[in-house]
Automatic annotation (TrEMBL):
Gene3D superfamilies in UniProt: 3.10.450.590
Residue ranges occupied by any DUF3887 domain in the UniProt entry: 47-140
Name assigned to this protein: DUF3887 domain-containing protein
Top-rank taxon: Bacteria
Organism of this sequence: Desulfitobacterium dehalogenans (strain ATCC 51507 / DSM 9161 / JW/IU-DC1)
InterPro entries in UniProt: DUF3887
Length: 143
């Protein structure tokens, strides 16, 4: 039970951190710098790969590249609202306005944060993707 509580706490910390970064982005303030533990090129490549997996509705591969929390929470059922929204948005066109940032949770765990606009035929989404230092997917948000 304590392990589940710790996972929930960590998930909430990550979510709160992402929301803070999103708010900072919306306000055009400078984002926290990406830690030197991360290669910006690899973060961007991997994030673009995650977006392609979402577009392909390949939840299994996303779970395989994720943390234990992602493996449990990123179910096909949890992704259904995203898939439905993407279907209504039309064909994928491009990724633009890419920003990379860093974040550290209360336990000292560092994360790379990728924020970009995913443009589709009829709609665009702000996509936020986080990775651990070993480049495991630790967060995925489409808004």
């Amino acid at each position: 039970m304590n392990m589940q509580r710790e996972r929930q706490r960590r998930g909430l910390v990550i979510l709160a951190s992402i929301l803070c970064l999103f708010l900072l982005t919306a306000c055009n303030k400078e984002l926290p710098a990406l830690s030197s533990k991360f290669d910006p090129v690899k973060v961007e490549e991997k994030a673009k790969n995650v977006i392609a997996l979402v577009n392909d509705r390949d939840g299994q591969t996303m779970r395989e590249m994720g943390t234990e929390e992602i493996k449990q929470s990123l179910t096909d059922e949890a992704m259904k609202p995203v898939y439905d929204a993407l279907q209504k948005a039309g064909a994928f066109k491009e990724i633009k306005d890419i920003q990379l940032a860093g974040n550290t949770d209360s336990s000292g765990q560092e994360y790379a944060v990728f924020i970009a606009k995913a443009v589709y035929e009829k709609k665009s989404f702000i996509v936020t993707i986080t990775f651990t230092p070993d480049m495991k997917l630790s967060g995925l948000f489409f808004k």
